[in-house]
Specification:
This protein has about 260 residues and is mainly beta. The chain contains three helices and 19 strands. The strands form five sheets. Strands 2-1-4-7-6 form a five-stranded antiparallel beta sheet. Strand 10 (about 135-145) and strand 11 form a beta hairpin. The longest helix has 5 residues, at about 45-50.
């Protein structure tokens, strides 16, 4: 990977809370000719907890109604602001200290984000994509022949094909008989299974993933996390029955699963 050292994220500053916090607001639509910080996709801390390296970006694509996380290489975190050029198209939502920003798409189209902290400046191009109307309509799990098979049927209600390249069965949190309930503080290790399946526009398709069983009876399970391609770019998200990804979806640009896994 390109980055060997851990990069610290900046303090999040919500646009609607910046004035209340006593911070100076950037004028709307302000842009800078040159960036003096680098931007990264994903949630800060994934390198520490999941071993994944930061993914550098100079553009963000996100579906309308969904949020992705962004953070910077600016180590002086406390005073930075990230401001949308067009508040009608997007929001910037504060996370806890040191974890970047949630950037939410409100209206389809192209816009941008401007970052400033003292002499440190930067810009990110932003494209709000059509709403991601992808939902899980059925899920099941069974143990047979010493193997556990998790099957989820997804419905693609968008006008574009969606290609799933892999599923993280670890995030399904399958609990077998004899295993104790994990605590909320426990970090679930990723268990990726490559599974390239295209869900055509307006159609449903079932994705099944299999791994060795730990016992003959399953007490509890959830949805897996998917790595998928929508509108030409990749995302990492848990898709449930809510007809869109959760706020925790991660933007991965044009990075295919094989590169993401390295």
């Amino acid at each position: 990977m390109m980055f060997q050292k851990k990069l610290l994220p900046v303090l999040l500053t919500a646009v609607f809370a910046a004035s209340a916090a006593g911070q100076a607001m950037l004028p709307a639509a302000q842009a800078f000719a040159k960036s003096s910080v680098s931007f990264y996709a994903g949630t800060a801390g994934v390198e520490q907890f999941e071993g994944r390296k930061p993914y550098p970006i100079d553009k963000v694509c996100m579906p309308q109604g969904c949020s992705v996380s962004v953070y910077t290489s600016d180590k002086q975190q406390e005073n930075g602001t990230l401001v949308p050029e067009d508040e009608k198209k997007m929001d910037v939502i504060q996370l806890h200290k040191g974890s970047g920003w949630y950037v939410s798409g409100k209206k389809a189209g192209k816009t941008g984000l401007a970052y400033k902290r003292g002499s440190q400046t930067g810009t990110i191009r932003v494209q709000i994509l059509p709403a991601l109307k992808l939902s899980a309509v059925k899920k099941s799990v069974r143990v047979s022949g010493g193997k556990t098979t998790l099957a989820v049927t997804y419905k693609n209600s968008t006008d574009s094909d969606i290609t799933v390249e892999a599923a993280d069965i670890g995030k399904a949190k399958i609990r077998y008989e004899g295993e104790k309930e994990p605590s909320k503080e426990d970090v679930t290790p990723a268990r990726w299974i490559a599974k390239k399946v295209t869900i055509p526009a307006g159609k449903t398709k079932t994705i099944s993933v299999t791994e060795p069983a730990k016992a003959s009876r399953i007490l509890k399970y959830d949805y897996p996390v998917l790595y998928f391609k929508y509108e030409g770019v990749y995302f990492y998200a848990k898709i449930t029955n809510q007809a869109q990804a959760s706020n925790g979806m991660e933007y991965r640009g044009t990075q295919p699963f094989a590169e993401f896994l390295k």
